[in-house]
Amino acid sequence: MSREIIAILRGVRPDEVLEIGQALVEAGIDRIEVPLNSPDPLTSIERLASGLSGQAVVGAGTVLTPDQVVSVHGAGGSIIVSPDCNPEVISRSKDLDMLSYPGVATPTECFTALRHGADGLKFFPAFLVGTKGLAAISAVLPRGTKTYAVGGVGPDNFADWFGVGATGFGMGTGVYKPGDTADTVLAKAQAIVAAYDRDAPTA
Predict the structure, then answer these.
(1) Candidate list 16, 46, 109, 122, residue with the active-site label
(2) Can you tell me the distance from the alpha carbon of 41 to that of 63, in angstroms, rounded to the nearest whole number?
């Protein structure tokens, strides 16, 4: 079962990343991003993409330029996540057959992202958009648009976000903080997966 959860490993180091990635997969999270402001992120992405081949979809977060998209692709990444809505980043991602999840907070950004081929919309920071904001914006989005709440979301409020139509979540410090061991990440991820499975709408 593939869940709509993207684990954000901000600050992770290459020497620890594969063990942490394996813990995420064991818990049931198979989408992983390494933000580009982490230590040596491309090496981490390369190690995850190789070590978890066939088990997880791996890529980068905090991607701001088309050149960075190309670098992530070269490292074996297949997901591009951004904090903003940059049409050039989205277009380059799609040109390279990568998944694109740009950050949005307004209807204008949402439709700009979708027109350029975004695979899903990252509502960031979610705590500023709020559940009422997402509900209002979702009402005008094309049916089937994937929406992810990122920033200020966690197992205690998954149900609220699912209730207004969120598709999934990006989990940062809730699943990994620099210094966390793989065992710590496993425990956090298991709690996240249990809450997701409990609260996700049934088809």
Answers:
(1) 122
(2) 11
